[in-house]
Amino acid sequence: MNRRSLLLAAPALALPATTRAQGAFPDRPIRVIIGYPAGGGTDVVGRPIMTRLSEHLGVPVVVENRAGANGNIAMEHMTRVEPDGHTLFMGDAGNLGITHALYPSLPFDTQRDFVGVAQLTAGPVVLVIGGGVPAQNLAEWTALLKSRPEAFNFGSAGVGSGPHLFYESWRRAAGVSMTHVPYRGTGPALVGLLAGDVHMMIGNYGVFRGAHEAGRVKVLAISTPTRHPNLPDIPTVREAGTDWGVIGFNGIIAPRRIAPERRQRLEDGFRHVMSQPEMREQMHGFGSLVDFAPGAELDRRMAAERESWTRLVREANIQPE
């Protein structure tokens, strides 16, 4: 190589590090949008996960709550963000599997406009009643509802939310009826339960943990076929004599036009976070279970959930507000 070639090559020798720095991902804070108010099940589970993801990726990961319309406001916003991987959406069965069952004419489509990044958790929901309700277990509560039809209220995160449809599914199996009172999120519904404005809720245990430990609510049963390892004293719904159960989930999605390598980087980041023993313990404390699955598997689950919940919405004639 002659002197001229060496001089021309010298600047290029310094390029790889600069190029890598310019092309690094993520290179600025990541926003994770949640379609419910702070204090709801997805929010409670999501915040510690995002703290660990921030530590792993080396950039801030900020949770942003955009509540309303079962997460539809937040998901519509997601269709307008840059598909560069710096804005993600964390949802649950209500957002990712149920919303199209209830709102068939949305300005977005979860399967057309978004792509799965990772499933994070899959967990049971618990059936909870207020501390002043005169029942000590699910069998007594079911008998009370049958003896006094329409005398009690059920509070949910909104019409068509996961807790609402979980309730509708359980109500049909148990042969009972209540007046549904929708709120703008699980947190506000919990305030109503503690105030006695509603008598029952269904949701992630993490939402009710503080109130349960303080004796302000009664956790009657859990929705899984077997008891939760961190909640061994809470019986399953099936143990109480009703053949019913559901498994909720939380997952991360991104705009469909995200670059595959960025989607993979995020998927790998969440895989790392959810594999940590302390994360498993923390999720157990919320009454949830770590159940990581790659983005492609989350895509399949969203499609299957959408189909099954659409059938229930039509059978129950549930109408959006």
Automatic annotation (TrEMBL):
Matching Gene3D superfamilies: Bordetella uptake gene, domain 1 (3.40.190.150), Periplasmic binding protein-like II (3.40.190.10)
InterPro entries in UniProt: BUG, Bug_dom1
Protein name as it appears in the record: Tripartite-type tricarboxylate transporter receptor subunit TctC
Keyword terms: Receptor, Signal
Keyword presence, Signal: yes
Protein species of origin: Roseococcus suduntuyensis
Alphabetical list of PANTHER family matching this protein: BLR1237 PROTEIN (PTHR42928:SF5), TRICARBOXYLATE-BINDING PROTEIN (PTHR42928)
Keyword Signal appears in the UniProt entry: yes
Similarity field: Belongs to the UPF0065 (bug) family.
Position of the signal peptide: 1-23
Pfam families: TctC
